[in-house]
Amino acid sequence: MEAVKTDIDKNKTVISLKDLYKSFGSNKVLQGIDLQVNQGENVVVLGRSGTGKSVLIKIIAGLLKPDSGTVEVLGCEVDTLTDKELQALRLKIGFSFQSSALYDSMTVRENLAFPLTRHEKKMGHEEVTKEIETVLEAVGLSQVIDQMPSELSGGQRKRIGIARTLILHPEIMLYDEPTAGLDPITSTEINNLINLVQKQYKTTSIIITHDLSCAKSTGDRIAMMIDGKFIKQGSFDEIFNTDDERIKNFYNYNFTT
Predict the structure, then answer these.
(1) Is residue 91 part of a domain?
(2) Contacts of 253 by beta carbon, 8 Å cutoff, 6+ apart
């Protein structure tokens, strides 16, 4: 896997959320979210399913609008961008969907070529092929290049979904429940891949999960979300070294779902 960027400024904030609120009707999903993510950092947003974690990263990517608060990504206030400016920003953001979001009618090669041929129109066939081969090697799946998504395992589809986001060399990666539905061994492989992407592609990442193993393995910092708020931020050990019953209950919940 080739590194795209060589210099990381760990004091530079690339994602800044301030006093963020979002409701759907009477359902209050986000209730005053504050978060800063620095360049090169993996931040895990940890919380129970259905607590608004996925809504949060959709707001960061400009796929949803907050009711109030500010969202700054790579120096841009997302809410103020024109459609053209927002599209340009999204090219710098890799979004790894929980479902992998592959096109079932396309081979792996065609799935990976699609974003390149859509956004990098000056690239020739040989350049496209080289990029595809590079990201497939990065995720350890060179051998599946001409297979259909239906022929892949769940873990392989996750890897190809990540490869498709990497092919545009994003500065930010957003992972939505990357280990959901996977067995423990495959989950460990995905966690290792997230860490490898961070190191080699020099990405800044937000990882949405309710999986404690994923959080512990991938998070430089963890933001614990309960009832639409971050109630604690810190390392994994700092989060769970607590007498807070809400956090203790989440720990127990993790082993019953």
Answers:
(1) no
(2) 48
Structural domain boundaries, residue 15? 11-86+205-257
How far does Cα 146 stand from its chain's mean position? 26
| Cα separation, 40 vs 12, whole angstroms | 9
* Residue 64 maps to a domain: yes
Q: Is residue 245 part of a domain?
A: yes
Residue 80 in any domain: the answer is yes
Taking only the tens of pLDDT, the chain with its 257 residues reads: 344 455 788 889 999 999 999 999 999 999 999 999 999 999 999 988 778 898 999 999 999 999 999 999 999 999 899 999 999 999 999 988 777 788 899 999 999 999 888 876 678 889 999 999 999 999 999 999 999 999 999 899 999 999 999 999 999 999 999 998 899 999 999 999 999 999 999 999 999 999 999 999 999 999 999 989 999 999 999 999 999 999 988 887 675 54
Give the DSSP letter string of 3-26. Answer: -S-----TT-EEEEEEEEEEEETT
Number of Cβ atoms within 10 Å of the Cβ of 99: 12
**CATH assignment at residue 29:** 3.40.50.300
Instruction: Please tell me the pTM assigned to this model.
Output: 0.90
Q: Are 94 and 166 in contact (CB under 8 A)?
A: yes
Burial class (CB in 10 A: 0-12, 13-18, 19+), 256: exposed
Q: Chain centroid to CA 46: how far?
A: 13
- Number of separate domains in the chain: 1
Cα–Cα distance, 123 to 146 (Å, whole number): 21
